[in-house]
Amino acid sequence: MKIIVLLLALLVAFGFAMKQAAENMEEMTIQQEIKQLDQYPNLLPVVEVTI
To answer: What residue range is the signal peptide (predicted)?
Structure first.
C-alpha cells in the first residue's frame, strides 16, 4: 500500500513539474517574440495622400 501511495505522489509531483515547465516555456516564447518585435521598426506601409 505504501508503494502505491509513493507512486501516486511521484506522479502528482511529475505532473506539477511538467505544468511549471510548460508555463515557463510559454513565458519565454512570449518574451522572445516581444524582443523580436522591438528590433524591427514599424513595418506598416507609409501612405502619402496627394491632391
So the answer is: 1-21
